[in-house]
Each structure stands twice: as C-alpha cells, then as structure tokens.
Amino acid sequence: MPPRQRKVLEFVLDNLVWFMLLVVLAIFSATIPNYFQPGIFANVIEQSSVLGVMSIGLALVIIAGHMDLSVESVAALSAMATGILFASSGIGMGITLTPGWLVVPVSLVIGLAVGGLIGALNGYLVIKIKMNAFIVTLSSYIWVRGLVVAASGGRSAQNLAPDLRFLGIQRFLGIPLTAYIAIACFIGFSFMMAKTRFGRHLIMIGGNEAAAFRAGIKVDKVLMIAFVLSGAIAALAGWILAIRTSGATANLGTGLLFNAFAAVVIGGVSLKGGVGALPGVYAGVLLLSSINTAINLMGLPAHYTQVIHGLLVLAAVLLDTLKQTIRKRLA
Amino acid sequence: MTEPLLVLDNITKNYGAVQALQGVSFSIAKGEVIALLGDNGAGKSTLVKIISGGLEASSGSMMFEGKEFRPKSPSQAKAAGIETVYQDLSLCTNVDVVANFFMGRELTKSIMGIKVLDEKRMEEQVAKAMANAGTRIPSLRSKVEHLSGGQRQAIELNRFVHWGGKLVLLDEPFAALGVEQTKRGLEMIRQVAAQGIGVVIITHIMQQAFQVADRMVVIRQGVVAGDVPRKQTNADAVIGMITGETLAGTGPGMGAGQ
C-alpha cells in the first residue's frame, strides 16, 4: 500500500468516531425535519456538557487499566453540596457571600475537594490495600449515593444563587457558559494525555503496568493522581449539573454512569486499558446526545433512547474489533 | 578490571519458608562481563531482581561503587545507573517504538512554562540508536504490538545500549532472536563493556556465555557453586558445576574469585 494511502487510512481509523458523528449528523439533517439548524447543534453541545465532563474522569481511570464506578454518585454529592449550601429554597441554606460572585469559586472548590477526597479514598484502597477497583468503586457508588440521600433527607434544594445560575443561562454564540467549561476540560485533558509525561505514563501503565514499573515510572503515584482526578472531575460534572438544574435532588444524575460508560466505549477507549484518547470520547458524548435530540425531535417515546444507546455500545465494540484487524494488516 | 563496581555479600531471599537464595556473594568489576549460569529455579532471576530493585533481599548487603546499596524500587536502581533487560519483555505494546525507548525518562521541552513531550527530538535519537545497532524497524511510530518478537527484543537491547548507565543486567536477552541478531547482540554487549560498563548476563546457552563473558558465576540451589574466569574453564566443567557433579568453584560465602 502506498504510504500516502496508508496515512489516510490510519487517520480515518484513529478518528473513526468523529466520522461516525458526521455521518449520523448528516443523516439526521437530511431525514428529520428541522434538525439542521444552529439551535439544534447548540442544544446537542449543551446537552453533552455534564456527561462530557464526567466521561473524561472515567476515561482517565479506564485508560490507566482501572475502573471508577463512583463517578455518578460523586457528581450527585457535589451537586447536593452546592445545592444545600447555596440554594435558597427547599433544604437549601441559601448562604450568600459578598461580593456575590464569590459563590462561584467557593462552591467549585468545595465540590472539587469532596470529589477529590472520595477519589483519593478509592485510589488508596485500590493501590495501597490492593483491592479490586471494580468492587471498591462499586461500594463508593452505593455509599456516596446513600450519603446524598441521607444529607438531603430525600428532599431537594432549589433556587441556586443567581451568580451560579448565570453560568448556565448566559450564552456565548448560542451556547451556555457551562458547555464551554466542558469543552475547555476536553481540550485541557486531551493535551495532558497526548503531550505530557503524566499522560504518557498513564497510557503505558494501562498497557503494561509491570513494564512501566520496571522502567522506573512511579506507578502508584500516577494511578493515585488518576483516581483523584476522576473524583474531582466527576465533582465538576455534578457542579455543572446543579447549575443547569438550579439546585439538586436526591436522585439527581441517576443513570449517568451507564451513559458515561457508553460514551467512553463508543469513543474508542478499551476497557482492557491502555487504549483510547479523549477527543474520541467527546465525539462519543456528542454522538449520544445528537441521537437523543433526534429522538426528541421525531417525537418518539424517550424509552427508545436506552435501546439505541445499548445497540450503539455493541456497534462500537464491534467496530473496534474490526479496526484492530485492519490495523494488523497495516503493520 | 580490579576496581569492583558491585559487590554482593551473602545475599539471601526467602519466600515464606522457601529459601530462593541462601547467601550469594560475588563481585563485578567495571567493564567486566559476567555470565550468570544455573539450572531452572537456581535463583538467577531472583538475584537479578534484587540488584535491579524489583525485589528486596531478606538479608545480606550490596556495595555499589563503594557505597552501601539497597534499592527499594527499579527507579532507585535506575537512578544509581543500573539498567535491566528482563526475560519476559518489558515493553508497553500499546504505544509506539519511540515511547517505549524513552519509557520513564521522556524528553520534554517547555512551552509557556508547561513541560511538553519533545517527540521530534526523541524520534531522532531513537532513529540514530537503531541505525547504529543495525536494527531495521519499518516505522518508529508503529505500535509495538504490531512488531515481531525479534523486533521487540531488538528494541529492548538497543534501549539498554543507548542508556548504558554503569551496570547492565540481562535476563536471557536473546531468547526470541535469530542467529544474526544474536550475534549482533553479543557484539553490542562487548561494546558496552568496552565503555567500562559492567554486564551481568543470564543465559542457558553455554556457547553464548563462552563467547561473551569474562567470568562464569554458577548459581546452584541458591548459592554460588562456581566463580571462575572463562579462560580457566570449559563448557563441560561449567555444566558440571550447574548440575552439581563437580565442585570446581570457590563455593558459597567465599566472595569473588579473582
């Protein structure tokens, strides 16, 4: 095969999810009335901000060869903390700060700290005590959600501080500021994974932990950072979720975990670890939310969403196997 | 060849009740190539792991360049100048050749205060190292999982030659190599030793040991059963030491035979 043709083929394989996204958007635009308009695309991006941010943290840990099932509950806890402290109705305490905008960094830091702490606990149990990541984070998934329900007494907090709400309402180019936070996260963490030593080490650990250790990489430290990051990023997702819904309910965000998994897998991240990149994950998130939007526009019952998501995950894994075969032939 | 680089003194290692090493003592001089021989389960790999920081000795002491040496991790041993090529390949197959070559010590450049991987410089250095060693790999950017066993081992060998350090440990480095590549590998070892780097090579193939080593150290049942210069022995005598039929060496606890 001529090198040029080979390069093109490799480029397509590396960015397959993006091409899938384009194809899907093209089909929807052609077949569904009113799909092709800026407002719809802005909506797709807006819809994907919470799921997108959460998927980043999950992807980091999975690429490193581990697992974090706690992201959904951590997001809920962060949202609930923000809601209880800074919402004025329901169980909200309605704390106000002067100047008013101070509520943004303060609530964000509280959320990130809570998330980072749970991530650190997960990391400690997995890395130092050598417990299985699946079980450790499953336990966190359960007890953290329990904490959310207990802290709220099953009730909700509404009317979030206006300075926080601002981030969800104010639009730039038709897209709310919260969505830009998600996009910034994707750019920042994609850069980290592709261009820094930490990112490179994370990928290598996911590929062959023993080799990375022997090569002098501080595996424990790198993994610990990954777990803390996953927790903190999940908390950021929860913070955005609270802003979008102007408060928090005890069951806020349920089901997000499985969507995040779907996005990560569709995005080309292998659950075996060591394979995948964040831009693909973002494409996966956008793909899911553009399909959701299409279902809404067609007026189909929302129940079909889940069926389609499930099939999409299967298709993604199938496609990944196919990609592997083609790559083998290329090498 | 008189200045000792590494001195092992009565190193033992227990796995619970099992004594893998029962007091191993020998020394390696600068620029010396030692063939570490012994039957399966004699404790060779355990010994290599202790020197390279992968395992900690149960008792005994090591002196590296005249100083007490007790690495707690491979990164500590590496920092001291000890490179290791392991029996089971130590490559991350999910990344490319360049990334593997620089695993754990990636070159970076600073862009606006952020340390960014310097891919271009790394690729140049790898290309140079590969060319020097006469290793041909189609693309340095292809992932290692798509390369053959021989190509993978070549990467590992070139990696240790490139990084050098002060002491190199090779745990059966030629298991997957062809005749020509093995020959080149043995030449590489001599080149490395000529630079004053100490080399310990574990091998099962007597012919290789005699081709490359200055001294034969035989481990049997966790002790040094023989420590003889290559010129004063022959394959039959060494095999005798390995199997325990003859006891031609200095025996346990006697230190390095000079």
Question: How is this structure best described in words?
Answer:
The complex is a heterodimer of chains A (331) and B (258). Chain A has a domain at 43-253. Helix content of chain A is 74%, strand content 4%. Chain A has helices at 3-14, 16-31, 38-47, 49-63, 71-86, 103-128, 133-152, 162-169, 177-195, 197-207, 209-214, 219-245, 256-266, 278-298, 303-330, and strands at residues 87-90, 157-160, 171-172, 175-176, 247-248. Chain A has a three-stranded antiparallel β-sheet. A two-stranded antiparallel sheet of chain A has the order 3-4. Chain A is globular, with a radius of gyration of 20 Å. The model of chain A has no long low-confidence stretch (mean pLDDT 89). Chain B is globular. Residues 248-258 of chain B have low confidence and may be disordered. Chain B has a domain at 4-81 and 164-243: Rossmann fold (3-Layer(aba) Sandwich), CATH 3.40.50. Chain B is an alpha/beta fold. The interface between A and B is medium-sized, with 25 and 31 residues.
Count of β-strands of chain A: 5
The portion of residues assigned to helices of chain A is over 70%
Shape of chain A: globular
Oligomer: heterodimer
Mean pLDDT of chain B: 82
Mean pLDDT of chain A: 89
Number of helices of chain A: 15
Number of strand segments of chain B: 12
Structural class determined from secondary elements of chain A: mainly alpha
Largest sheet of chain B, described in full?
A: 6 strands, mixed
Strand order of the largest sheet of chain B: 6-9-10-3-11-12
User: Which residues of chain A form runs of ≥5 with pLDDT under 50?
Assistant: none
Instruction: Tell me the CATH topology of the domain at 4-81 and 164-243 in chain B.
Output: Rossmann fold
Helix content of chain B: 25-40%
> What gyration radius of chain A follows from the Cα positions, in whole Å?
20 Å
Approximately what portion of the residues of chain B adopt beta-strand conformation? 25-35%
Q: Most extensive interface, residues per chain?
A: A-B, 25 and 31 residues
* Low-pLDDT regions of chain B: 248-258
